[in-house]
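Q: We require from you a single protein entry containing the residue sequence and its fold in token form, and nothing else.
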Amino acid sequence: MGKRDREATRARLLEAARLRFARDGYDATSVRDVAADAGVDATLIFRYFGSKKALFDEVTADLPAGLLDGPQEELVARMIAAVVFHDWTRYGGEHPLVAMLRSSAHEDARRRIREEVCATYVEALAGLAGGGEDAGLRAELLSAWLVGIGILRSVVATPALAGATAADLAPHVESVATALLGRPMSGAASDG
């Protein structure tokens, strides 16, 4: 098998795994299912990734680059764009966090959720929340709200959120983020 064939096979396995994990979760997804979806033998998963866990880790490690770059007052708007409005078609239309949430009965998935959410979202928000005993709590409340928006929009597909645009959410994002972080926040990210 040539290098291009190996790369194509690996890419097909990743694509099949993204969709399976997003739809079925970690425990309900078998190596055989992923391989069958990709049209290859299951042993190739172990050859390319080493284990089902390593495959899961790779397909759920896709946070958009630059999330924390840019004006601080636009951070929450950038988070909304990343979680809610980013093109996640490679994951069946859902943020990789949704695949992890579907897999939350598995300890490794719970650990990854804590690491991804806390290290990426909560830490950044807590830094903006300033001092005070409840800065961490306010950051976690805002994080929970953001994740909830993403789940209601992509998984539950509630009518108002599923049809909303970033501009529709902007005044509400500004209001909630400003209230919870105790500082002026923008509901929209600049295009630059």
Summary: The chain is about 65% helix and 0% strand.
